[in-house]
Each structure stands twice: as C-alpha cells, then as structure tokens.
Request: fold
Amino acid sequence: MARANSRRTSLPHASCHARRVLPTFGRLALGVVLLGAGFGHFANAEAFLAQVPPWMPAPEAVVAVSGVVELVLGAALIIAPARWRPAVGWVVAAFFVIIFPGNVSQFVTGTSAFGLDTDAARFIRLLFQPVLVVWALWCTSAWSQWRESRRHVTT
Reply:
C-alpha cells in the first residue's frame, strides 16, 4: 500500500516537471527548425524562391532577408533568457503570420518545392502555419503570460 501512495505523490511532481520540460523541448526544437530553415535559404535558395509571391519585388533579397530573420529567431529561441522568451514567442508567431502569403502563393501558383508537388500537398502545408504560430506562443509561454496579464487586468 505504501508503494501505491508513493506513486500518487510523485504524479503531481511528474506533471510539474512535464510542464517545464515539454515547452523547453518544444522551444529548442522550434529554434533548431528555424536555424535549419534559415541556413536552407542560402544553401537552397532556389527552393525558397518558389514561396516568394510574384508581386514581391526583389525575390532573391526576400529569400536572403527572411533567411537571416529565421537564423536570428532560431538563435533567440535557443539562447534568450527566460524573461525575454514570451517576447521572442510573439515575434516568432508574427513572423509565421507575415510569411504565410508565401505559402498561399505557392499553393495558388502551383509551384513545386520542398517536395510539395501536388495541390493537395501544398494545401496541407497551409494548415501547418497556424500550428507553427501556436507552437511559438506555447513553447515560449507567450500565450500563458498574456492570459495571466489579462486576468490581472480584469480583477
């Protein structure tokens, strides 16, 4: 019976530990993804050009600048002190919103890149952009901090 009780008392601690570890892992993973994408802008610029809408001027510059931004944001997700992480999360989420027209353009123009060679694949890719926004807000505690600040305003 004592063994069952010890398991019960360790569950809240395990839950608390998971609440810290999962967002940290998610933040580091998103940082690595952004770093990889940022480097990819320079190693495989042709593929990233497929996402630049035709109405954008200087597509090569757009690819280069967005690559630098992804490198900076990826590094910030990994090394920013805890007090800055919510702000980084909002900036990363905003970046994902800002680049969404590129994904829409790739779908609308039917441009193949990154293995997205069918309309269905390009459409499914569109559905992942909101996931990236939520991921950035969750793993940096930006969303929970905002909710907490709203709770203090209303009370």
Summary: Residues 5-10 have pLDDT under 50 and may be disordered.
